[in-house]
Amino acid sequence: MNSSFDFVNPALIDVFPVEHDGYPDHLAAEDTTDALRDACGDAARDFPDSFWIEAKDWADKAADNDRYRTWPMNYIDRYTNQNPTHECTCHSLRANCEAARNRARAVIYSDGPKKNTRYPESAVDGSVWLSPLSVYSEANPDRWGGANVRQVLEIAARRGMLPDRIQPREYGFRHTLTGTSGEGNLNQSGGSWVPVSKFPAGWQDTARHFRPLEVIFPTSFEQAVCCVLHGLVVSVGRNGHAVPWARWMAGQRLMAYPDSYDVTRYDSEQTARSAWRGSFAVASMTLPDDWSRPAG
Amino acid sequence: MKPYLLLIAGIVLLSGVVPLSLPSWPEAKPVAPAAPGPASAAVYVYEKDSSAVPVGVTAGLNRLNRERQIVATLLEDDTTDGTGDVPEQYRTALQAARTAGLPAFVVLSGTTVIAVKKHPETDDDIWRSVP
C-alpha cells in the first residue's frame, strides 16, 4: 500500500482469533504500564517530549512518512508465521526489536514485509532475524497457553533474543534457534518445540547482542500514535492476540500491523484506543561493533 | 684489541679530540599530510529526549547506503553493544558528535573524521555533507 490515505479492505480490519492465540484475558490483565516498566528495569523510558505531535498534524506527518517511506513498517523486511502456536506476544516483540535495529541501520524496505519474498537488501544491510521461540520457551515452558507482554519484555531486556536458524546471509553465529514451533515461512524457520534446557550450550553469549536497550511506554493512545509516526513499532495486546502496530493509516484512522500469519491487518481506532495500555515501543537495541558481524 | 685500549679509544672519541664523522643523509623535505580517503561511514548521532530524528535524515542515510555504499546509520547517544560498551565502530564518531553538540552528522574515512554537520534536517543536508 503506497499511501496511508488509501482505502483498506474491510475484511482486514479488526480481525480477532475465535480463541486466543497466546494472549488470554487473565494474562492480559497483568499488563499494566507500571508492571511493564518494572519488568523492563533500567531499559524503561518515558515518552520523550520531542516525540509529541498534535493530532491536527498527524496527517501531514503521515504524508511525510509516505513520501520518504519512513514508517516502522518500512524497517520490517519479513513476515513471520506462528500458526498454530500461542507465541503471539513474542512474534510482536521480534517485529519491534528487528525494526529498531533496522531503523538504526537506516535502511528502508520500500514495501515493508512481503509474503514469500526475500529482499536482497536484507543480506547487504545486516538485517538479523530473531527467534520468537527463544523468548517464548522461557516465558511459558508448558508451550500452550500463551504469555503476557510483561513476561516476554522482561526476558528480552534481561538476556536478549537468539537469532533464527534462517538468516538473510551467513553471519557465522555460534548459537541460533528455530524461529517458531509453528509453521514459519521462507524467512522464518519452523519446527519442533525447543525447551530452554535444549538451547545450544553458551547461547547467552549470542543472545546478549540482541537486547532492547531503551523501551518507551506510551501513556495514552495519542502517544502511541506519535511513536508510530516517528518510526517506532508499538507492540500491543488486545482481544486475545498481540500485534505490532507499524503504520498509522491517516485516511481511515487505522493502525496497520504485520500480523504473525504472513499478512498485514488493521486495527480500527476504536480497537486501538482500547489497546494502548499494555503497549511498548523499543527505541534502541544493542548494536554491534561491526554490522557484518552482528554477534562479534 | 685489548680492553684497556678500547676504553681509551672510547674516551678520546667522547671527549671530541678525534671528531666522529657520520655518513650524511639527504635533507628531509617536509611531507604534506595524506589526503583523507573517501568516506566509508557516516553516522547521525542524536539524543531522543532532545530531538526526534527528522524523516529527511533517515531518507538521506538510506540513500547513502544504497547509492554510495557508505555504511550510513543512526546512533542514539546512550547505545551500547552486547557487553555494555560503546560499539567500537561508533567511538570516534560519537566523540566528534558530542564535541560538536547533538544532534550531529559525522562522516568518516576509516577512523578519521572528515566532516561534521550540526543539526541536519533534510535528505539534502545529509547528502551534501559527504565529501
Structure write-up:
The complex is a heterodimer of chains A (296) and B (131). Chain A is built from ten helices and eight strands. Chain A is an alpha+beta fold. Chain A has a single domain, classed as Cysteine proteinases (Cathepsin B, Chain A, Alpha-Beta Complex), CATH 3.90.70.10. In chain A, helix 2 runs parallel beside helix 7 (149-159) and helix 6 packs across helix 7. Chain A is globular, with a radius of gyration of 17 Å. Chain A starts with 24 loop residues before the first helix and ends in an 11-residue tail after the last strand. Chain B is an alpha+beta fold and 131 residues long. Chain B has a domain at 41-129: Glutaredoxin, CATH 3.40.30.10. Chain B has helices at residues 3-15, 55-68, 91-100, 123-129; strands at residues 41-46, 71-76, 104-109, 112-118. In chain B, a hairpin with a 2-residue loop joins strand 3 and strand 4. The longest helix of chain B has 14 residues, at 55-68. The radius of gyration of chain B is 27 Å and the shape is globular. At the A-B interface, helix 3 and helix 4 of A face helix 2 and strand 2 of B.
Briefly characterize the structure.
Chain A has 296 residues and is of the alpha+beta class. Chain A contains ten helices and eight strands. Chain B has a domain at 41-129: Glutaredoxin.
Question: How are the secondary structure elements laid out?
Answer:
The complex is a heterodimer of chains A (296) and B (131).
Chain A (H helix, E strand, L loop, with lengths): L24 H4 L4 H8 L3 E2 L12 H11 L19 H18 L14 H5 L8 H7 L9 H11 L44 H4 L4 E5 L4 H9 L4 E5 L2 E5 L1 E3 L4 E6 L3 E6 H5 L7 E5 L11
Parallel strand pairs in A: 1-2
Antiparallel strand pairs in A: 2-8, 3-4, 5-6, 6-7
Chain B lengths: L2 H13 L25 E6 L8 H14 L2 E6 L14 H10 L3 E6 L2 E7 L4 H7 L2
Parallel strand pairs in B: 1-2
Antiparallel strand pairs in B: 1-3, 3-4
Helix pairs in contact in B: 2-4
